[in-house]
Amino acid sequence: MLDKYDHAITKIMARIHLMREETGRVMNDEWSCHPYEDFPKSPLFQYMTDDGGAGNRCGCLTQIRSSHEFSCNEYKAQWPELTAKIAEDERIPYYTSKIDGAEDLFVFAEYQRLADKNYRKKEAVQCSFKDAKIYDTGDSFAESGISN
Fold first, then answer.
1. Which residues form the domain of 138?
2. Residue among 84, 63, 82 nearest 74 (CA)
3. Is residue 48 over pLDDT 60?
4. pLDDT tens-place string over residues 106-135
5. Is residue 125 a part of any domain in this protein?
């Protein structure tokens, strides 16, 4: 059964391939937060926190990976063991602009599912992005009923 991460990958890849949008622009757009909200547009780029939102110097996968690589340790996951795992994973690009396509997005989905299964609050995992008004971008993919 497809989950919200599979749908997010499909949406992003459709924007790139069907709509011929530039990859870096799509990734930055999907990573960016809605105004006045602390959640990224796409569930793939949620922060590594118990609810997926920003807070407590916790970052998304690219922020955690680049913080470790460049020794600034600015961002972390809410859970130390996950911070270490993310920091060491060479499959994670340092910047959203370096996310190249589906292969990278599958890695993001892998970590989001891991966080959902082992770390996040049950309420945050059960909530679809559309229901939370986070993933509703007004296009046909968001209207398709994305849920866990």
1. 4-143
2. 63
3. yes
4. 999 999 999 999 999 876 666 545 433 333
5. yes
Give the rounded distance of the alpha carbon of 104 from its chain centre. Answer: 11
What are phi and psi for residue 101, nearest 5 degrees?
A: 160, -155
Does residue 148 belong to any structural domain of this protein? Answer: no
pTM more than 0.90: no
- Is the torsion defined by CA of 16, 47, 38, 56 positive or negative? negative
One-letter amino acid at 102 equals A
The tokens for 106 are 């599958």
Contacts of 92 (CB under 8 A, 6+ apart): 61, 62, 64, 65, 86, 104, 107, 108, 111
Q: Give the tens place of pLDDT for each residue, 52-97.
A: 888 788 889 999 999 987 877 689 999 999 999 999 999 999 888 7
Task: List CB contacts of 121: < 8 A, sequence separation 6 or more.
Answer: 50, 51
Calpha distance 130→136 (Å, rounded): 5
